[in-house]
Amino acid sequence: MIIILKKNATEESISRLEALLQNKGVKANHIAGANQNIIGLVGDTSHIDISNLAAQECVEDIKRVQEPYKNANRKFHPDDTVIEAGGVKIGDGSLQIIAGPCSVENEDQIMTTAIACKEAGATMLRGGAFKPRTSPYSFQGLREEGLKLLIKARQETGLPIVTEIMSQSDLDLFADIDVIQVGARNMQNFELLKALGRCDKPILLKRGLANTLEELLMSAEYIMSEGNMKVILCERGIRTFETATRNTFDLSAIPLLKQKSHLPICADPSHATGIISLVDPMSLAAVVSGADALEIEVHNNPKIALSDGGQQLTPDMFKATMDKIKGLCGYLNRRIG
Ligand code: PEP
Ligand code: MN
User: Fold this and answer.
1) Is the same domain home to 25 and 169?
2) Which of 82, 160, 169, 197 could form a disulfide with 92 if both were Cys (CB 3.0 to 4.6 A apart)?
């Protein structure tokens, strides 16, 4: 971190800043320039609050030269992190396909869909039991009953299960879940992130609707700083001025996150586009961009789905997309599963 001092900064105000820095455990290196005096900070600056320094009388400007996330940063962990979940590995170069309905609706729906997903080549099963809906009058999910149905579907298919948590008070209910998802709307629910950091489960952390990649990585840092290093980042589209798609799929986030972090990356082309016909091409694009996993919504009968009917693939469509993904993985020399 570099602090640029004001031209007219008094000795007294600089001494006060130095004392503050010493208090924070970082070393201050003074560099006198022809036009400006600066202070270079040496040491761990990740816990320093920039606004606190900016409020000091002698400070003109502050520049970070190092990212504020340490655990998630590839600079400190050059090797890719591989996460084991229910017998599959995410981040080891293989491609995992997490498929299933937006919401778990009833036993027949989740069983039929799970079996179809497995037959088409999915390697993990998704399904929401706790649903974050814009309207309180929309279907809110089957909650605990939904988790039980997912576990039943795992027994039937052998597919590890991924499902969303909305509150840390429900954490005990997730004891037998393979991957806990944090949805876009909860990406900055810091108490939830900290609680998940104290558990031993892989966490699929989705990017918030209007969050930067640095904010996503800082949310991963919340989980990791509590001890849980098993975080999978998920790009699921962001809000922009474009209304033709539900969200704007930020494809470049996939290779960029790979450069910045050692954590595995998942892409969700269903929520990123909200349009059935775009799920197939965007799935392929995400694989080419280096995603370690795809999360795709599939429903045995999307026309009567209780949530996100407009973006869920039918089993036949999913199979057609899977066939293309398999062809692409053959070309890229990547294993599925
Ligand atoms: C979901 O995956 O079911 C979901 C609600 O996604 P997101 O949090 O990305 O909107
Ligand atoms: Mn959905």
Assistant:
1) no
2) 82
Q: Supply the range of the domain harboring residue 238.
A: 83-332
Sign of the alpha-carbon torsion through 79, 200, 93, 218: negative
Q: At what angle do helices 315-332 and 107-120 cross, to 10 degrees?
A: 30
- Residue 261, domain member (yes or no): yes
Nearest atom within ligand 1 for CA of residue 128:
3
Q: Measured at the alpha carbon of residue 169, what is the angle toward residues 166 and 174, in degrees to the nearest 5? A: 70
* 317 sits in which H/E element: helix 315-332
Q: How far apart are CA 209 and CA 187, in angstroms?
A: 9
Nearest-CA residue for ligand 1 atom 3 is 102
Residue at token pair 């039980």:
148
Q: Does residue 89 sit in the same domain as residue 59?
A: no
What is the Å distance from ligand 2's center to 270 Cα? 7
Residues 199 and 293 in one domain: yes
Whole-model pTM: value is 0.92
pLDDT at residue 64 is higher than 90: no
Using pLDDT thresholds of 50, 70 and 90, give the confidence band for residue 60. very high
Q: Ligand 2: distance of its center to the CA of 18 in Å? A: 51
Antiparallel, parallel or unpaired: β 83-85 and 88-90: antiparallel
Helix (H) / strand (E) containing 66: none
Does 56 lie in the same domain as 159? no
| 106 and 209 inside one domain | yes
Model confidence over 242-294: pLDDT tens digits? 999 999 999 999 999 999 999 999 999 999 999 999 999 999 999 999 999 99
Total number of domains constituting the chain: 2
* 170 domain-assigned: yes
